[in-house]
Fold:
Amino acid sequence: MFAYIIKRLIYAIPIALSVTVVSFVLVYLAPGDPLNAIAPADAPEEVIVALKSAYGLDKPVPVQYGLWLLRAVQGDLGTSIASGRAVTAEVLSAVSNTLLLAGMAALGGVLIGCILGALAGYRHGTWIDRVATVISVIGVSIPHYWLGLVLTIVFSIWLPWFPAMGAGPGGSSEWLWDVEHLRHLVLPALTLSVIPMGIITRTVRALVADMLEQEFVTALRARGLSGVAVFRHIAKNTAPTVLAVAGLQIGYLMGGSILVETVFAWPGTGFLLNTAIFQRDIPLLQGTILVLCMFFVVLNLLVDILQPLIDPRMGRG
Amino acid sequence: MSASLELSLPAASVAAPAPQPSRSYWLVVWRQLRRDPMALAAGGVLLLIVGAAVFAPWLAPADPYKASMIKRLLPIGSPGFLLGTDELGRDMLSRLMHGGRLSLLMGVVPVLAAFGIGTTIGLLAGYIGGKVNMVIMRVLDVFYAFPSVLLAVAISGALGPGMSNSLLALTLVFVPQVVRVAESVTTQVRQLDYIEAARMSGASAFSIIRVHVLGNVLGPVFVYATGLLSVSMILASGLSFLGLGVKPPEPEWGLMLNTLRSAIYVNPWIAALPGALIFVTSIAFNLLADSVRSAMDIRR
Amino acid sequence: MKQTLTSPSPVQDRGGPAQPLLVVRDLKKHFAVRGGPLERSKKFVHAVDGVSFSVPKGKTLGIVGESGCGKSTTARLIARLMAADSGSMVFDGEGVEEFGGIRLKEFRRNLQMVFQDSFASLNPRLTIAETIAYGPRVHGMPAAEAMRQAQALLARVGLEPAQFASRYPHELSGGQRQRVNIARALAFDPRLVILDEAVAALDKSVQAQVLNLLQELKAERQLTYLFISHDLHVVHYISDYVMVMYLGQVVETGPVERIYGQAAHPYTRALLSAVPSMDPDNRTQASPLAGDPPNPINPPSGCRFRDRCPHAHPVCAAKTPALIGLPGEPAHQAACHLNDPASGHPAALMEIQP
Structure:
């Protein structure tokens, strides 16, 4: 088991490194001189030269990458052009907001998905199964940015229950655990939770229905085991797969939040990315993507490590 | 393949051991789909949407670009404007019909491109195997370290807004996924005895791939690609919604959703219309993909 | 190209009837087994370890042995579907792909193979006529002619072309599919056909029909068969010579009646005694094989069978027995110290004269 974890960790290193490469290369994808990414367009010649040597842009590209990586590892992702603040600080505050939103959405989505899927699997072919199927199809087909808009119309305009914009009163971007802030969280989290809900419902439904047809469940029932005991067996056997799917989905949530954050003006990474792209703030873009992807890599790693720990087949091996 | 049809038609009821009608795989799948009510419904909806989009220049009641300051945000059912008008007073119905052209194009083209490119790479990687396969698959693993929305936003964000850039970004998002499917199916097919039999006949690798591998790999990859259509629709319109795709004043559902956002306080129904169309198209693609999957699941 | 294809035999008989059609010398194939991440040394499975034999023209050589003994690997090595680590092959007096010998492409046309899994060996997307015509078309035969030939071949293997030519593999029964595979193999007019467990998956009655078809075709087209099977009855029925393999090596080989009547190797005897005989008087009380074959990654030293052999003696661990002819029967060879008076085995030679 320990060897397996070490192996996984080692395997994650090249992936993490290549993520940094892609993030770095993004700057070169951007049209024009990468210098435009750091210098204002109207900067005088001597400022440009100074900036060039300061950022090592006069050196060959691999060296530049090395220098950039070195700074990134030390927590220096450069300076935002738009705000003039350190990218690291901006990204971290935004990431915490995004993680809050994604975490809540994941919690809700996975929970609802599991319950709905399990019910549908248990009552295979009944009305609840059909409802769950419809919900899961809608869940995977709905453009969540549109769902956000519809929810705003219903729960913010028609029924003034929840605020439509921002993370707190008065456009505050500092998160606090109070009622006012939580009310701001409801609509975006609900919107986002639809992303994992559809897939999880579908997965759990298929797994449970499949499991119930298997002989060992029949055998358990024949031995007179109660419904609870059978359920425990099923839960134990479906958990690893559900965890793997949920892990992936949480990753997608971090991506999907970009769109939903735009709808609700949520001060997270999506909002930051939007600013970065339209103000051509390349260091900010680069930094945000790097941090988000690192989270994704770590998440995948965690799922990979956790999965065998809860898998009854691998646990003993 | 056509010979099989001619053979089966005439003498069917003459002799006692009547020859069964022989049907090629794709023909069976097609017939299966035609019997599936879900596939028919989804296909019908898609046909309607695609038809309205393709023939928009002839069918649309008004010029989708013609703005009018005094007719802004007219409600649905206004005289002369069946679905009302948008924030610049343009006819919504016409804009939605025209918008389907770009939205469908941007949703379908990346999947088609990824299907072609991904199948080719996956086929080669799977057939060659060994180190070449390993290198290709490890490189593609990197793309898996990015959530797809993030990757699409990152690439088109770095390239700059624009239609071709977002097409490129979406294609790059889907290629690795298609390669993975094509590679794994090819690896399975490659080990089957009929490939060895073909090698025994001294056929070139190219001929074996064309005749024996491709036909058997295409099915599963096709199923996977149809499943991507819905994702692609949502992502493509999403990029336009973020302002990364189509630029105003072009009609496109995602972009319309964005520009109409401010109208939710005035006329929420109008604001929700373009998104509803993305939703309907995406659901139809998903249901059709499900039907295609089960139709192609016949064991053979 | 077309000329040679339609002629009855692409490579004319060169050495005359006495020349063996195929001679295989010291064929070896080791598969590397991946160790754990912390293990340095690579391990190898000795799938085929120094196999030598020859197949006389117009005869059938049956290869028997338990699963995993290397018989199918041997077939794939001969067919060059897999590269051998070492060893050489001589086809009708000419080396295969060496110093002016015959080229691989030409060799392969002279050698065809029929596989065990009749379904996996047919492309599900092609009609059976297309499958049969594929090989000749690759070699440049015009489509119409290839299809005509395919129809004729179908008729020859007992499948009415009008009824079957345009069917797909899933529309056929297992026996019918195996007939198609045979027809495909014949499309090249090969001289040697390798039948790798070709009837193993068929029902007994269908098996008999296919075996009879194979016998007819052999006589009609002067074919030579390499018949690989774990079914000793079938091998007895169809073979002229039999070769017994154990853990990648040949332990005994000889004319079929000698092997089935006077087997010289304890392993062969164990194998044969494991088969229920139809004749009650002929039933042996000898113990069938005990245990599983040893791990092919680390085969025992000396004789590989010694762990399961009732006659094992320390000399069996020390010395590897050579495959040598029996006294007075040079065609019947066995690799056992019991048959070698000079081996030092205390029971040597006494054992073979019951």
Notes: Chain C touches chain A through three residues (CB under 8 Å).
